[in-house]
Structures are given as C-alpha cells and as structure tokens.
Amino acid sequence: MTDNFTEQKNFLPGLKPVLELLERDPGRVDMVYVRKGRSGGESGRVLDACRAAGVRFSLMPGEALTRLAGGAVHQGVMARLRDGAPEPWPELLKRAVDAPLPLLVALDQVQDPGNAGTLARTLYALGGAGLVLPRHNSAFLGPGAHRAAAGALERLPVARVVNLARAVDEAAQAGFAVYAARSSAQSVNALRAPLRLPALLVLGNEGKGVRPGVLKRCEADLAVPFLRDFDSLNVAQAGAILISCFARALPTPP
Q1: How far apart are CA 208 and CA 174, in angstroms?
Q2: pLDDT surpasses 80 at 81
Q3: In contact, 12 and 78? CB cutoff 8 Å
Q4: Which residue(s) pair with 199 in the sheet?
Q5: Is 112:206 a contact under the CB 8 Å cutoff?
Q6: What is the average pLDDT value for the chain, to the nearest integer?
Q7: Cα 159 from chain centroid?
Q8: Are 72 and 44 in contact (CB under 8 A)?
Q9: Maximum CA pair distance of the chain?
C-alpha cells in the first residue's frame, strides 16, 4: 500500500488550515507532512501541535511533497485526514433551527468541488446550519473543496442523504420553508421578497439545475434579478447572494 495522496485523496493542504485543525480537532488528522527545512515560524507551530496531540508527522523534500499534493497549493504543509463520519440527516434537521442562521443548503448533484467548498465557506461565515448532499453524483469533498472552503468544511455540518427529494419533504414537514434556486416565470425576487426561516435552499447542478423530482417539492423558485443582459452566475456566486438574502431576513441581524 503506497502513501499517495492521488490514491488517498482525503487531505487538507495549506499551513493555516492544517494548524487550525490541529489546534481545534486533532483527532481528525491521521498524518501531517511538512517540507524539510521548514521548521520555524508557523511550520514550527504545526510540528509542536503534532507532538502535543500525538499526531504523526513526516518531513519530506519539497519535490516529493508537491508530487503528493497533485497540484494543490500546500505552502509546505499538508494533513491527511481520517475519514470523518457525516452528520446524520435527522440530527442536522433537528439542530438546524438553533444555528445563528437557520438555513440548510442542499446541493442537488453539484459536481464542482470548488463550488461546493466556496458555498460551505459562505454558509459557515454567515451562520448557516449545514450542507445537504445526495450520496451519489455529488462533488467530492476532497482537496479542491477544502481549499475553496478555507477551513469551513472542518466546522460546518454536512449530511449525505440517499434520496434528496425525500429529505426535502422531511424538511418541509419539520416546518422549513423550501426554496429552489431557479429563474422562472414564477420566480421570487430574492433581493426584495420576504424570506421565511428556518429554510432549506436547494441549489442545482451547474448545467441542468435542480432536478424535476426535487423541484416539484419546493414551495417557491428564488432568483437573483439581473439589471443587465447577462447569461448567468455560477452556482457558488448565485448561492452566496441567496445565502446573504436569508441572513438579511433574520429578525435580529447578526
């Protein structure tokens, strides 16, 4: 068995994200890789944190570390993560109402890890409750997603569900307003319309949007109005705007 990140794929690159995870939740870290000759400053803190928490670490030449990173910007430090257990969907649904922003975001077959990570970063920063992903045909939350999330995926609850349409039904039954991010003749203007909380916002695949079986379970389409003739925003950009609209809907702004 080789110790190769292209096979393992479950790693976190970057000095600051690795250091934050070691200090906050070292049990998530299986191994830390540090470039040889980089032992001062924050890299020294990484090694000290490893020793204090009993986390294994390895010093390796920069060329080898770059090969293992597979193109990721690692800043001389990478951590291999243990396989984390996802948040059980019933538990996330129950606790979502207590989040600073009681908003869940469901990604309906969003494929790009960078989009998923960026959405996690925005949702976590604005107090959101968590992400909901189908178990199949979803973006891999690996290095690309973790880079884009800048530490948010280590903190934000993520639930994986077998059937997203059923999860949408369950959210509605629990009292959540359910919105689909979609431009249609019946779309609600996200910048002007009053939005209800707690809520579940469904964001669709980059090319196909929200699937019909999920869409028909949503109570309203929610769209960002354009003031210029323009094709579209990508899912991470549109999602960030919509999440901020829900944050504005809080009775007491954070």
Answers
A1: 28
A2: no
A3: yes
A4: 103, 177
A5: yes
A6: 85
A7: 11
A8: no
A9: 60
Predicted pLDDT at 5: 39
What backbone torsions phi and psi does residue 117 show, to the nearest 5 degrees? -65, -40
Helix (H) or strand (E) holding 20: helix 15-24
* Secondary structure class of 49 (helix, strand, coil): helix
Q: Provide the token pair at 81.
A: 């993560």
Residue by residue, what is the 3-state secondary structure of 121-159?
A: HHHHHCCCCEEEEECCCCCCCCHHHHHHHCCHHHCCCEE
Q: Which one, of 235, 198, 250, lies nearest residue 92 by Cα?
A: 198
102 token code pair = 């009681």
pLDDT at 67 over 80: yes
Q: CA-to-CA distance for 213 and 166, rounded, in angstroms?
A: 10
Amino acid making up residue 183: S
What is the value of pTM for the model shown?
0.69
For 75, what's the count of Cα atoms within 13 Å in the CB-facing half-sphere?
A: 14
The residue to which tokens 């059923």 are assigned: 166
Could you tell me if 163 and 209 are in contact, meaning their C-beta atoms sit under 8 angstroms apart?
A: no
- The Cα 93–Cα 31 span in angstroms is 33
Tens digit of each residue's pLDDT (9 = 90 or more) over 129-144: 999 999 878 887 776 7
Q: What are phi and psi of 242, to 5 degrees?
A: -65, -40
Beta strands 77-81; 29-35: pairing state? antiparallel
Q: Report whether 208 contacts 235 (CB < 8 A).
A: no
**Nearest-angstrom CA–CA distance, 225 and 185:** 12
What do you get for the CA distance between the two ends of the chain, in Å? 49
Coil, strand, or helix at residue 52? helix
Phi-psi region of 64 (alpha: psi -120 to 50; beta: other; left: phi over 0): alpha
Which amino acid would we find at residue 8? Answer: Q
